[in-house]
Amino acid sequence: MVLHVYNTLSGMEEVFEPFNPPLVKMYVCGPTVYDETHLGHARTYVAFDVIRRTLECLGYDVFYVQNITDIDDKIINRAERDGVTAGEVAERYTETYFRDMDALGVRRADVHPKVTEHIEDIIEAVARLIDMGFAYEADGNVYFDVSKFKGYGKLSKVSVEELRAGARVEPDPLKRNPADFALWKREERKGVSWRSPWGYGRPGWHIECSVMSMKYLGLRIDIHGGGQDLIFPHHENEIAQSESLTGTSPFVKYWLHTGYLTIEGEKMSKSLGNYVTVQEVLRRHNAGAVRLFLLSTHYRSPIDFTWERLEAAEKNLEYLLNTLGRIESELRQAEDKTGEREVEVHAKLSSAVRGFISSLEDDFSTSTALRYVYQAARDVNSYLNVEDKPDRGVLERGLRMLARACGVMGVAWGRESAAAPEMVEKLVKIIVEVRSEARRRKDWKLADELRSKLRDAGVILEDRGDKTTWRINR
Asked: What sign for the dihedral angle of Cα 328, 331, 333, 334?
């Protein structure tokens, strides 16, 4: 099977064929940094983190750019409310954004360009659009004339006639047409404006991403992503600006958009006040559990937030990590053998691997892929429950499969060899031997006391008949 992705532009799944394989150029719209990051934001960034990891797993070389919008009306309003500068607000919440994404295991993009560091590039692009006849100046503002771009509406399927009637756009008497949008906004307040050929001002939202994506990724992008709320007007306007500037179409080959994270069926949003911050969630749950929750639904579908669903994800994470720990523990006394039971487990693991990869190749279907991961974990546990001396090959294969899945899903688990250095391992073995001798003498008090002390230290013992295995509790 080959990778298929759903393209918002065509409205259907397509075979993924980047412009210059194995290179994949990917741009995802980043945060506007004026407040704490909430779980709705995390839904999008975790999804594209896994899309990136999947592409790399499939052999692609991903060059990933994600911008930071560090000047905007919301940032200015927050600065005025807090009695600080817009720059201070942007710096503070850029730091908290990266703190939260790092905590969730979201790998940083190759480049995180900031709007304020690209003002000259933006001014140059706006001036070119005016010279080419796609934009016009009005009282210190510059607007894009949508009537000059014949393909306007092809992404969102919004008609220009609808926009001209005044629907879905902000009214502005300076515009020639209601559908026109701002490339440059007149602004005279100090600290939030820059000198331009049209007077002091600042960039419009849409032109920022066009300019930064072209600067770092060139005229054409393989994947452009973001939340579905960005389809219109932001991504629609990006297409108009970029393709007008370059004369190259398509500007983006595959448009990917995430569904909403909702609370009781309503989009999680700061404006609605129904949001939960990433920090609040991480105070109560492991980052791996949060990721498993967010990945339990296909990235294009809405996912409803409840604390109960996070509890279920926490249990799934615990089961997965315990399975990995159990495999590593059992490998210490594994043997090399091949019987009917081993052949059966190998076949089940092969099927799980195929299912896992084919699910990801089906438009990055993490929800289906995770079902194969959990099934593989159950198959390995069932095997270990009946085998006193398990086969090394089965365990190593199960470990590889589950570790690979954790890597693609971004779930940190670590190697027990890293958590338990050689000296620690030797000491634990000595204590386990002392306890085993106590059990043979029927000194249950000492055996229970040693088990309890090891548990307090993070070492879990499992007795099966006269054999004891141990693992580090994660």
From this structure: positive
Identity at 301, one-letter amino acid code: S
pLDDT tens track for 383-428: 999 998 999 999 999 999 999 999 999 998 754 333 445 567 778 8
Q: 347-385 pLDDT, tens per residue?
A: 999 999 999 999 999 999 999 999 999 999 999 999 999
Please check whether residue 452 is in contact with residue 299, taking contact to mean a CB–CB distance below 8 angstroms. Answer: no
Every domain of the chain and the residues it spans: 4-258, 304-414, 419-472
Least reliable range by pLDDT among 296-305, 356-365, 448-457: 448-457
Residues 474 and 336: their CA atoms lie apart, in Å, by: 28
Nearest to 10 by CA among 319, 198, 252, 188: 252
Reduce the DSSP state of residue 223 to 3 states and report it: strand
Predicted TM-score (pTM) of the model is: 0.87
183 φ, ψ (degrees, to nearest 5): -100, -35
CATH 3.40.50.2000 is held by the domain 4-258? no
Q: How many CA atoms lie within 13 A of 18 on its CB side?
A: 18
Estimate the crossing angle of helix 307-330 against helix 366-386, to 10 degrees: 40
Rounded-to-integer distance, Cα 50 and Cα 159, Å: 34
For the chain, give percent helix, strand, coil, nearest 5. 50, 20, 30
- Domain 304-414 sits in which CATH superfamily? Isoleucyl-tRNA Synthetase; Domain 1 (1.10.730.10)
DSSP string, 391-424: BHHHHHHHHHHHHHHHHHHT-----HHHHS-HHH
Residue type at position 347? A
Question: Assign residue 175 a region: left if phi > 0, alpha if psi is -120 to 50, beta otherwise?
Answer: beta
C-beta of residue 376 within 8 angstroms of C-beta of residue 352:
yes
Amino acid at 321: L
